[in-house]
Specification:
The complex is a heterodimer of chains A (about 280) and B (about 300). Chain A is mostly helical and about 280 residues long. Chain A has two domains: about 45 residues, no CATH class; about 220 residues, MetI-like (MetI-like fold, Orthogonal Bundle), CATH 1.10.3720.10. Chain A is about 75% helix and about 0% strand. Chain A contains 14 helices and no strands. In chain A, helix 6 packs across helix 8. The longest helix of chain A is centred in the C-terminal third of the chain and has 35 residues. Chain B has a two-stranded antiparallel ribbon with strand order 1-2. The longest helix of chain B is centred in the first third of the chain and has 32 residues. Chain B is mainly α and about 300 residues long. Classes of the chains: A mainly alpha (about 280), B mainly alpha (about 300). Chains A and B meet through helix 2, helix 5, helix 6, helix 7 and helix 8 of A and helix 2, helix 4, helix 5, helix 6 and helix 7 of B. Chain A: InterPro entries: MetI-like, MetI-like_sf. Chain A: It is found in: Cell membrane. Chain A: It is a multi-pass membrane protein.
């Protein structure tokens, strides 16, 4: 996995290359970003502008839609709920994941293979299949309409990917380091804390980001678990806002663009990790 | 060197201390995983044998009746057909386009990293946001038709979402937009792992650009393509969010975009037939599992060493 960054191809000469490539790239980027730009600009228009000319630019620019959303309690409550759910999911996935991965990577015991297979098999279990029983389970635990009711299943469903990514990191630590640490009277747990954790930080970051974005965007699970508007996360909020204000397209667009910003900021901060994590995870 | 080396016994067998560590470290993950993944999946299989409205303990055991109903239910079969189409079309549409784009971007391009970030944006945006935006753009009086009219192609304007002849193609367009960035990034990463010496050697031997791509890049990219195809197939089989968000209002089944997962949710949660909905979930799971295992067995064998089925 470490190879992929170092193997990045560098142009040897400083030329600009083929202009057709730039044209095609520009077109591609335009197609990809077009809808996003439409959503953002749409929020700066009025409904009559949208009705009269659905594809036009804002004229004049209307800031009221964004101002309304930014001053609404609903929006900020949903931002808070999404943030709490995503952070708790991330912490849970990473902490539980790295502990289990450490055991899988560095302990020899009977049932180790079975344990790895169990988690790996989890990759094949989509949350869709389990959603009704999950809802019932969460209901029996009294967690419906609470964020922990969303967080716990998200942690559980995030574990397989996390473990698959982290086990190789922990296995890659040479046995000699562990033996040297043992000679220096460092217990296995001490080794975990002082050596294994710091050495697997890149893996922890990747899995953490995947968990965070997955949680931030997740829809099906919150749809089942959260029925009370007060506990809505942003995806549910966007949808309910869109159906509630279905005639007020401009405001829906403003709400939608604002709810997209955190994920985009987060993504652009960590894009290298995300892309690397995805490609690395897939290649094993 | 004042400390003695660890005793032999401790190294060989598993001491109590070590067992305790194993339990303490992996226990929480196993507990959460068993409770919230394995147990619900098993319960789905169990509920699938009952006619059950979702209240209390299911008592009306109907054996395989739900499954018989599913296989005769034209709405389910339509959903299954849509899933099949989406699987095939995703591979056929996204694969070649993504490979082409990756080849294009794999050349000398200034600002390649920025381009990569930008084409990845749709993949990172939440399904809800993509769905809301696209449904506004594609509706009869939306932006897509607006653009068509403003460039004098008003005759092509359509109700892209509600017209059953077009809805599935609109869905494919949205899916391509949403997921092609992922494929391109994956393929680019694959290409950039191919040692440059190979293309250089080919160039020395007088191979043209296309010969090099066809004989060297594409064959060496094959493992990446196979993994992408696997992820794409599984994703297409389990497609839910986008369809449910966009077509929930039009009822996906009449628009011709229903999938097994949306069918499951409309039957199970919205219509209250929880037993039946769970049976649908089991069918969805079994189909995905069979396809995944066959794919692993016959296509991925060379690539993964069974990473997904728990090897190593």
């Amino acid at each position: 996995m470490a190879r992929r960054t170092s193997a990045r191809r560098r142009p040897r000469r400083n030329g600009w290359g083929n202009p057709i490539v730039y044209l095609a790239a520009l077109l591609l980027v335009g197609l990809m970003l077009g809808p996003v730009i439409y959503i953002i600009l749409g929020g700066f228009r009025t409904n009559s502008q949208i009705t009269v000319d659905p594809a036009g630019l804002p004229h004049p620019w209307e800031f009221g839609n964004y101002a309304d959303v930014l001053t609404s309690d609903t929006f900020w409550r949903q931002v808070t709920n999404s943030t709490i759910a995503a952070l708790a999911t991330t912490i849970g996935v990473v902490v539980l994941g790295v502990m289990a991965s450490y055991v899988l990577a560095r302990y020899k015991f009977r049932g180790r293979g079975a344990m790895y297979a169990l988690f790996a098999a989890g990759l094949m279990f989509p949350i869709t299949v389990a959603i009704t029983p999950l809802y019932i389970l969460v209901k029996n635990l009294g967690l419906v309409d609470t964020l922990p009711g969303v967080i716990l299943p998200q942690i559980a469903f995030g574990l397989p990917t996390t473990i698959i990514i982290l086990v190789p990191f922990l296995q890659a630590i040479p046995k000699e380091i562990e033996e040297a640490a043992a000679i220096d009277r460092c217990s296995r747990l001490g080794f975990f804390w002082r050596m294994a954790l710091p050495l697997s930080v890149p893996g922890l970051i990747t899995t953490g980001i995947l968990a965070f974005i997955g949680s931030w965007n997740s829809y099906l699970l919150p749809l089942f678990i959260l029925n009370n508007q007060d506990t809505f996360t942003l995806p549910l909020g966007v949808q309910s806002f869109a159906s509630q204000y279905s005639v007020d397209t401009a405001k829906v667009l403003a709400f939608t663009s604002l709810s997209m910003i955190p994920a985009l900021v987060f993504f652009s901060l960590f894009q290298r990790r995300i892309v690397g994590g995805l490609t690395g995870a897939v290649k094993g | 060197m004042q400390a003695p080396p660890p005793s032999r016994a401790r190294r060989r067998g598993i001491g109590w201390a070590q067992r305790l560590e194993i339990a303490a470290l992996s226990g929480p993950a196993i507990l959460v995983f068993l409770s919230f993944v394995i147990f619900p999946v098993l319960m789905a299989a169990y509920y699938g044998f009952y006619r059950w409205k979702g209240f209390g303990v299911p008592t009306n055991f109907v054996g395989l009746d739900n499954y018989k109903t599913i296989l005769q239910d034209s709405a389910f079969l339509a959903a299954l057909w849509h899933n099949g189409l989406i699987v095939v079309l995703s591979l056929v549409i996204q694969g070649p386009i993504a490979i082409g784009l990756a080849l294009l971007l794999n050349q000398r391009v200034r600002g390649q990293s920025i381009i990569r970030v930008l084409i990845f944006v749709p993949f990172v945006i939440a399904e809800v946001i993509a769905g809301t935006g696209w449904s506004l753009m594609l509706q009869a009086n939306g932006a897509v038709n607006g653009i068509l009219r403003s460039i004098g192609l008003g005759g092509l304007a359509e109700d892209w979402l509600a017209n059953p002849k077009l809805a599935l193609w609109s869905l494919m367009a949205i899916l391509t937009w949403k997921y092609i960035g992922f494929a391109v990034i994956l393929f680019l990463a694959g290409m950039q792992n191919i040692p440059e010496e190979l293309s250089e050697a080919a160039a020395v031997d007088g191979a043209s650009y296309w010969q090099t791509q066809r004989r060297i890049t594409l064959p060496l990219l094959a493992p990446t393509i196979r993994i992408w195809a696997f992820l794409s197939i599984i994703g297409a089989l389990q497609l839910f969010d986008l369809v449910y968000i966009i077509w929930g209002q039009y009822v996906a089944s009449t628009a011709g975009t229903s999938t097994m997962a949306t069918y499951m949710v409309t039957e199970g949660r919205n219509a209250g037939n929880y037993g039946y909905g769970n049976a649908v979930a089991v069918v969805l799971f079994v189909i995905s599992l069979i396809i995944a295992l066959l794919y692993q067995r016959f296509v991925l064998r060379r690539d993964t060493d069974g990473a997904l089925t728990g090897g190593r």
